[in-house]
Request: fold
Amino acid sequence: MCGVTLREARDRAGLTRDDLARRAGVSTRAVYDIEHGIAIPRRSTRMVLAVAVGVHRDQIDWPTPAIKEAA
Reply:
């Protein structure tokens, strides 16, 4: 990972979670869940969030699914 987190990008843009959610057309809870690694955003959601914070989606370190260990 070499970019910034969504929260860092949001902070740099001077946006609250509510602001970002409104700009991107997603719920505030979705923004929270993505920022905390609870949810993995779809490609289309990544695009609208990145546009809303003013960076390319490839510059954001998005959460990734956890890999389960074999028993």
Remarks:
- Helices lie at 6-12, 17-24, 28-35, 43-53.
